[in-house]
Each structure stands twice: as structure tokens, then as C-alpha cells.
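Is this the right way to post C-alpha cells for a design question? Let me know if I should format differently. Anyway, here goes:
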């Protein structure tokens, strides 16, 4: 795996605008319109209880994970993506582990996420990290796209 460093994007940092711009471009490329956060990324990130980690390899933004902790009861993984040419090198897993670690520090007991069951790479990754399927939500993404709701209990893991 190429060396890289996982960084947290800070609201007041000088690289905020450039980093958000890069991620918005990736969102548009990787996700269909109805699943893309591109339009709202900046707004989402400015919310008090949300965070973004990104992987930088020699100055290139290779992937990112967005998470939030709406209450003391649970946190959510809202987005995870790795650039296509950088996949299958352990970067997605490293980002997810880092986000789980961040959620642990918020002292929440459960992490929730939603995933299209047809997104096999992501589904396998979440299962590998111990997430379990809670329920299937029909029409979650669009009229013909469902989602699994998955959870990871932190005190049990
Ligand atoms: C999901 C995603 C982030 C995985 O990133 P990645 O860097 O390629 O993943 P890793 O190399 O860290 O793989 C970790 C595990 O994920 C699973 N996995 C990853 N790619 C897979 C593939 N093509 N097929 C099956 N399982 C896969 C495996 O369990 C793998 O563990 P292993 O290497 O021991 O088999 C990446 O495929 C992606 O960006 N997909 C598009 C966006 C997306 O679907 N995001 C999730 C919804 S928000």
C-alpha cells in the first residue's frame, strides 16, 4: 500500500475550500446524482456534529470518509469513497477504521450507516469491520434502490 496520511479537515483551516472542491468533484464522479452530496457538502460539513477525514498520498486526495454524531446515542458514517485507481490497496478500510476511532472518542455506543446492497465492495468492507445488517429500507435512495441499515455496537466490539 502506498504511504499516505489520514487527515481531519478543520473548519478554519486554510485548505478548507480547496479540499471541499476536490471532494465535490469526486462525489460527482463516483456517485449518481440522487446519492451525491456534492451540492450540500460544504453545508453538511459546517454542521457542528460532523467530521471529515481524508487520505493524502503525496499531496493527492485519494479518498475520504464523512461521519456525524447527531446525538450521544449514535454516530453515522455518511460517506466513504476512494478514487477508482487507488482502490483495493487497503485505503477504504484504513479510512473506515479511522472514522470508527473518531466515533469511539465521541463515546457513542452505536455507529449506523446505510448502504445499497448492490454496492458489494462497500458492503463487504462494512461486514469485514463488524457491521451487521439491521433492516432493509425500500426506496431509500430512489424508487428502485433500497438500502441496508447497518450498525456496529462499539462497547461490544
Ligand atoms: C467501498 C470502497 C471505499 C472500498 O475502498 P478500497 O480502498 O478499494 O477498499 P480496501 O482495499 O480497503 O478493501 C477492504 C475490504 O473491502 C472489501 N472490498 C473492497 N473492494 C472489493 C471488491 N471490489 N469486491 C469485493 N470486496 C471488496 C473487501 O472485504 C476488502 O477486504 P480484503 O482486501 O481483505 O478482501 C471503494 O470501493 C469505493 O469508493 N466505492 C465507491 C463508493 C461507495 O460505494 N461508497 C460506499 C457508499 S457511501
Amino acid at each position: 500500500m502506498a504511504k499516505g496520511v489520514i487527515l481531519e479537515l478543520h473548519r478554519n483551516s486554510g485548505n478548507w475550500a480547496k479540499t471541499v472542491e476536490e471532494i465535490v468533484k469526486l462525489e460527482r464522479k463516483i456517485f449518481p446524482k440522487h446519492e451525491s452530496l456534492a451540492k450540500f457538502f460544504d453545508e453538511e460539513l459546517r454542521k457542528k456534529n460532523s467530521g471529515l477525514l481524508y487520505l493524502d498520498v503525496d499531496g493527492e486526495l485519494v479518498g475520504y470518509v464523512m461521519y456525524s454524531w447527531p446525538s450521544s446515542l449514535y454516530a453515522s458514517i455518511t460517506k466513504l469513497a476512494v478514487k477508482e485507481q487507488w482502490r483495493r490497496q487497503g485505503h477504504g478500510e484504513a479510512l473506515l477504521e479511522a472514522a470508527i476511532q473518531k466515533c469511539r472518542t465521541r463515546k457513542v455506543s452505536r455507529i449506523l450507516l446505510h448502504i445499497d446492497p448492490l454496492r458489494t465492495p462497500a458492503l463487504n468492507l462494512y461486514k469485514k469491520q463488524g457491521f451487521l445488517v439491521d433492516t432493509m429500507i425500500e426506496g431509500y435512495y430512489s424508487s428502485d434502490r433500497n438500502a441496508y441499515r447497518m450498525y456496529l455496537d462499539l462497547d461490544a466490539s
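Format looks fine. Someone answered above. Worth noting: Strands lie at 5-8, 50-57, 60-68, 74-82, 110-115, 132-142, 145-153. DSSP finds four helices and seven strands in the chain.
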